[in-house]
Write a structure and sequence with these properties.
single chain; alpha+beta; 5-stranded antiparallel β-sheet; 7 helices; 5 strands; 13% strand; globular
């Protein structure tokens, strides 16, 4: 099923984004991801919501500075004992976020195609599975492709991608 920008994010606008459980889950995701991002030398991380929502068993996807998916880095983070406590806590935060979305009756909560993208500062909810390459990132960072739960860094990669996507959609 292709991402439908016109209907995918409409229901989340009505969600209470000031809900303390949602805010805590989003802050936890950003904080825990910041350490994993730094440890993997990656600018962006996508996390399955819920954490077991992707078929391949790996709950995260990392991109490098060229905006290519780094399967090796993601696998290393998942298999390195040093990262295990942070990864476990990150999965718990993703599951807590999913529980809030499900409790609110958000229609996309049961599709198992949800993820959040984070730069370690902010968190964007995306009702679509991530894919390799910069095309998906550009599409999702553009207008209507994501719902910010926490503001992403103004000087980060996501903001640069969002600016490029907005410029591309204007022309």
């Amino acid at each position: 099923m292709a991402f439908d920008r016109t209907t995918a994010l409409a229901p989340i606008v009505a969600l209470p984004l000031d809900d303390p459980h949602l805010c805590r889950a989003a802050r936890d995701i950003a904080l825990l991801s910041s350490g994993l991002i730094a440890g993997a030398d990656a600018p962006l991380l996508a996390l399955a919501v819920p954490s077991d929502g992707w078929d391949d068993g790996t709950p995260i996807m990392l991109w490098d500075q060229r905006l290519s998916v780094c399967e090796t880095r993601g696998r290393t983070v998942c298999e390195t004992p040093m990262f295990a406590p942070a990864l476990d806590a990150l999965c718990l935060a993703a599951d807590a976020l999913f529980e809030r979305l499900h409790a609110w009756g958000w229609s996309h909560a049961d599709t198992h195609k949800l993820c959040v993208v984070t730069d370690g500062t902010g968190v964007a909810l995306i009702p679509d599975l991530p894919s390799e390459g910069p095309g998906w990132l550009i599409d999702m960072a553009g207008p209507g492709g994501h719902m910010p739960l926490l503001p992403l860094a103004d000087d980060g990669v996501w903001s640069l991608i969002a600016a490029a996507a907005e410029t591309a959609s204007v022309h």
